[in-house]
User: Which sequence fits this backbone?
């Protein structure tokens, strides 16, 4: 394997998608100790810009992503897509939108798409996901679209990894987001009111803008509100302008190496590693008496 | 401390509530290694029957619990109440119903009430909660009412600890529980349709009964459906009949020592313990380069 891994890394670095896929397999198998084999993962020369896209099911995230892939490709940019399906104990299987909307880009050597479940035993992001996100940085990708659903633990974690976060809503979201508005303000860099041709879209967009102004914590960062109709492509120009503006700056690169962020990543990776140990240890237990040796001082 | 701890244990075992409170403080401070100091926690002579009570905010769980405390006290039973407030990153503070409804029982030497936050970093139940639940078993309690909200990770964990689980709903819950119905079936031993004097209560109770019959997995266990009005006490007799019936049997005692359940508890305790190590280790990290030593082979 070690002989091959040099060759795989070389191919991935050159932008070869098959090589990239094999690199991901290696990383998945080896876990966080891969950093020692591939220290390149730690300091990207040309980091890919990570756009987080989250929101409730049915908001049109997949359609939006399909459109964005097209637009980035028109500019000759290489695009990665990483869709994280939160695996809840109750809802088995994919929650995220139809993958079919991405199929237009299958076979395109400038597009790499991967779905992955969140596998941390408590619902957080898997070690593989963290490694994968870093792998995009060394394989000539210009932009990575990271799709998640809602605002659970997984979304919080992935948004800590993203460089720019868009929360996609629909005009009808107004009622249901009341409770989580504070959380959304926390993670959003932009609110996208999708299906903007529906009744109530303008009113909802204004409502969002007002609640941003009324945020008692004050505007800790500028959050835009944007109306789109992903199906027709309307509003996408403004979205891409936003991306361009942030990408041009240096702030997102500084944010990425902020110690707090690196520590959060370290914790998640350590947790994933220890989870295996926990499983093994727990298997030795069959009665409460076994707790005595398990928790001896 | 070790001199004192013998005395504290003695008082707690004798049923003294102050002694019990001090025992909990010791357990909280020491964590799972307390099992070595207090091996009594591992094999209860006279286990307290643990009734889990969960459901959405506003379903009347606190009122129901207030009523149940009264009814158990009439029978001369000693009652513990453990209310677990899920601490979400978004909703700071208490989600659970007004504690004021329990105040009628303050000062009653046969009632012990404790609220605790879920403190596992990923939202699970804290080690203290697990230790506390076991402590009730050795301090002369007859019954423990465990209140939680909803069906998140914390609720799943606490329901793995309960001997009998009631899911409290209201006639209006029909629409909002569709998505989590499977999860509720998984954890419920009884559905309580509270505020049963409201319109739609009978229809909703029948709907629940039908969906139990239609459960594609078949009836893996009998789940009752009950209509109550906690405010007036209506329906409580039937609830208590249910409790009596289960308590008389031996099944709940066997369920409690089932290896799968003990292993789940071991995992949660190990996870809590390792979380502290993770925090310490993560503090040593300030740049991605530090991952190399953190994840060396």
Assistant:
């Amino acid at each position: 394997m070690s002989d091959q891994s040099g060759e795989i890394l070389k191919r991935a670095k050159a932008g070869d998608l098959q090589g990239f896929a094999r690199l991901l397999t290696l990383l998945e198998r080896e876990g966080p100790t891969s950093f020692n084999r591939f220290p390149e993962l730690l300091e990207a020369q040309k980091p890919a810009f990570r756009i987080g896209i989250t929101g409730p099911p049915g908001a049109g995230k997949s359609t939006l992503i399909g459109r964005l892939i097209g637009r980035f490709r028109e500019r000759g940019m290489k695009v990665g897509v990483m869709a994280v399906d939160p695996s809840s104990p109750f809802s088995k299987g994919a929650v995220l939108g139809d993958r079919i909307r991405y199929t237009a880009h299958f076979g395109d050597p400038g597009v790499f798409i991967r779905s992955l479940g969140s596998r941390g035993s408590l619902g957080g992001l898997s070690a593989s996901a963290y490694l994968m996100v870093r792998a995009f940085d060394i394989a000539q990708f210009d932009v990575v679209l990271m799709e998640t659903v809602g605002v659970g633990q997984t979304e919080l974690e992935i948004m800590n990894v993203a460089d720019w976060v868009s929360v996609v809503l629909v005009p009808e979201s107004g009622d249901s987001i009341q409770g989580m508005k504070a959380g959304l303000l926390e993670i959003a860099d932009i609110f996208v009111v999708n299906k903007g041709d529906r009744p109530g879209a303008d009113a909802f967009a204004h409502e969002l803008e007002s609640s941003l102004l009324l945020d008692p914590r004050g505007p800790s960062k500028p959050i835009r509100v944007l109306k789109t109709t992903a199906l027709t492509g309307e509003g996408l120009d403004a979205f891409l302008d936003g991306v361009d503006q942030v990408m041009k700056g240096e702030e997102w690169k500084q944010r990425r190496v902020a110690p707090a962020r690196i520590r959060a990543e370290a914790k998640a990776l350590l947790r994933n590693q220890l989870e295996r140990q926990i499983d093994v240890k727990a298997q030795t237990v069959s009665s409460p008496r076994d707790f005595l040796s398990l928790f001896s001082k």
